[in-house]
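Recall the central idea of this unit: under ordinary conditions, the amino acid sequence of a chain determines the structure it adopts. In this exercise we apply that idea directly, starting from the sequence alone.
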Amino acid sequence: MKRRLLVAALALTTPLVGCATVPRPKLCEAVVGAHERSYPTPDTWFALLLHGFDPKHGAAPRPPVDCSGAPVAWEEPSADECREAGPQPKPLAPKERLDEKDLVLETTQANERLVWIITRRFDNGEGLGPVALVERTKLGFIVRGLGSLRGMTENVKLRMEHVGSTDVLVAEGDACTQEEPQVCRRAARILPLRSGRFFSEAVSSTERTCLGAGWFPLAREQVFELPSGLRRKFELTSTLVFNSDDITVQEQVSVSDSDPKQPSIPERLYRRAQNERKLKVEDNVLVGSTPSLWSRMVELQMHAGAKPLQEKPLVAPEPPKEDPKATGTAKNVP
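Accordingly, the structure predicted from this sequence is:
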């Protein structure tokens, strides 16, 4: 497969004349045969989006770089710069070889797909890797949009929405517990597409202060220990509604109390609250009308002395491999 990097096409600043349409960006291009064009394999997508991918070993150089030469990276807003910090999970060891489990494909329209390659995974169930909007042509594939995505990796759904004058990538996925009965919680990421790049923008106020990451849990739970010794559980359910001019985030939080010294007594509902906030996709920023209901309610509990209980990682790191040459650990070695 022949791949070419098209950098000059990013500078699409020529004024429109008459009814001329705006040229679509071309970030990367692959020329492939007719069979591979109709029946692309996982290696087809890996080679298209990962710079230096080697099909023989099923791997790309680390740290990974996308086909445009940009590092595959992600940075969440931290607690000292944002009203609500984004998730801060621990990375798991990278896989030695990529396979079909690391590839997410979603058809958006005829001859166009969203492609996400998961090159790194985390202990909260998230994965990180290049994401692209790819068009199939008569000669092969052209990348029309490109960026990095970190999101949940179970039951993933990718789609494009149009809000205001901007196309946005919506990535939804589940994080599921390993224990039975299995519990899955869903979360969404929103990445505006600007000049051919998917941007991982935080939600800002009109004054440009950071309200939170562009991360929207659709189901969430957190338990706090109160100064009295009681346990207070917060449960969030939320919905994203994409309108022509904005995004509506509908949130509902229920709070219940329990006594760890009396486990046989059922939880008691303490309060329930709901809220609706708006997000606007402006020229260079994702603007929110208010902080999330979750962050406001949790802040009140923290100020009152409540302490969050540590959650168990959803994905446990693999145990270190034993070295048969190491003293005292050799197995089945003659």
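The longest strand covers residues 268-281.
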